[in-house]
Design a protein that fits this description.
- This protein is 41% helix and 17% strand.
- By secondary structure, the chain is α/β, with parallel strands linked by helices.
- Helix 6 links the parallel strand 6 and strand 7.
- It binds magnesium ion (MG).
- Magnesium ion binds next to loops.
Length: 395
């Protein structure tokens, strides 16, 4: 079996203006995007993956990613065996120095060892694991070692409301069955970041009661002093983790925040490949690692991150802020890691999450999600229908 075609399809959903759009430090939620990668083999098998065009609500790198996937990386792997995703990953990462890398057991990366090139690699990698598993009629987690769990707890990931509505917003998550809530804090509460942030945290904790888990996410928007003051003031509200208190460009600072608070620190959604996560671990910057399959470089990089985390006694909680395809792919990863206790479940209307794949992601009465056991990613996507439903302007 050989790879025949590699395609990238950007999808766009423009938010209908209601005057109540979600707002964070990324600004108002104007539109959402996903770039879906489709790989087809000469046997007619098809696999899919997803690439992040960027966080926030701009079009980000949709056009660049399509070009990288279809015009640069894709042609390099046409003719390769899709049941060798790790080899293909190394070929794309090392480029013309693949031979050096494999002979001497070291990385010899091309230009583009981080950023959109690695994102594009990740979408291709996901699609290859999908094909590999489908060729054997098994889910991806079987290929990754057989799996540890058939279902896992979720947390409701939202919490953008101001203090006077934050409690009501969080309570709505609990009413829908979630037993854990993540809320946004940080620069969105400027200029009184600590005072206003704590007011919102208190409102949420009061609303959800003492038994629900509560996490904070600052999107890396604080400086060290702000992060430490907010963390210390938040300790009395029984916080499960404080996510990206400072930028991923400042792992030393993240370590200092971690040293200054009893709240566990999590990070990883802006970091690339197992090499970045090795360095996060070396900096002792976090308690929980949050690789995003559509950022780190797909299953090949993520499973290596899982191993590194396990060896360092750290947990992995995959970041899934993309379409339903990324969510289902992340469930395959979560099932296969020994140290994955929980998975993110995004909140707020977004048809790319709720209306892209049947069945749509859903939780059971205990706030858990079930890992699909079908072949590959475990679910099917109708990409032609998605292209019509979520047209990208230049697609
Ligand atoms: Mg986050």
């Amino acid at each position: 079996m050989k790879i025949r075609t590699v395609e990238a399809v950007p999808l766009r959903w423009p938010v209908k203006k209601s005057g109540r759009e979600r707002t964070s430090d990324y600004g108002p939620h104007d539109e959402s995007h996903a770039v879906i990668v489709k790989v087809e083999t000469d046997d007619g098998l098809v696999g899919h993956g997803e690439v992040h065009p960027g966080y926030g609500y701009t079009r980000g790198a949709c056009r660049s990613l399509k070009a990288i996937v279809e015009q640069e990386l894709g042609p390099e792997i046409v003719g390769e065996d899709p049941t060798q995703p790790e080899y293909v990953w190394e070929k794309l990462y090392n480029g013309p120095r693949l031979g050096i890398a494999l002979t001497y057991g070291q990385s010899a990366p091309r230009m583009g060892r981080r950023g959109v090139t690695v994102c594009a690699m990740g979408g291709i990698d996901m699609a290859l694991w999908d094909i590999f598993a489908r060729s054997l009629g098994v889910p991806i987690y079987t290929l990754l070692g057989g799996g540890y769990r058939s279902r896992l707890p979720t947390y409701a990931s939202g919490g953008h409301a101001a203090a006077d509505e934050a409690g009501e917003e969080a309570l709505a998550y609990i009413a829908r069955g979630f037993r854990a809530v993540k809320m946004r804090v940080g620069a969105m509460d400027a200029p009184r970041i600590v005072r206003d942030g704590i007011a919102r945290i208190q409102a949420v904790r009061d609303a959800i009661g003492p038994n629900a888990d509560l996490m904070l996410d600052a999107h890396g928007s604080l400086n060290e002093s702000q992060a430490i003051r907010l963390a210390q003031a938040a300790e009395e509200y029984d916080i499960n983790w404080f996510e990206e208190p400072v930028s991923s460009d400042n792992w030393q600072g993240m370590r200092r925040v971690r040293d200054a608070t009893a709240i566990p620190i999590s990070t990883g959604e802006n970091d690339f490949t197992h090499f970045d996560f090795r360095d996060i671990i070396a900096h002792e910057a976090a308690d929980i690692l949050q690789p995003d399959l559509a950022v780190v470089g797909g299953f090949t990089a993520a499973r290596r991150i899982g191993v590194l985390a396990h060896a360092a006694n750290l947990q992995v909680a995959p970041h899934i802020w993309g379409s339903a395809l990324l969510f289902y792919a992340s469930l395959q990863l979560a099932a296969a890691l020994p140290n994955c206790p929980v998975i993110e479940f995004r909140q707020g209307a977004n048809p790319l999450f709720d209306d892209l794949i049947t069945p749509a992601p859903a939780i059971d009465g205990e706030g858990h999600v079930t890992v699909p056991t079908g072949p590959g990613l475990g679910v099917e996507i109708d990409l032609e229908s998605a292209r019509r439903k979520f047209p990208f302007a230049e697609d």
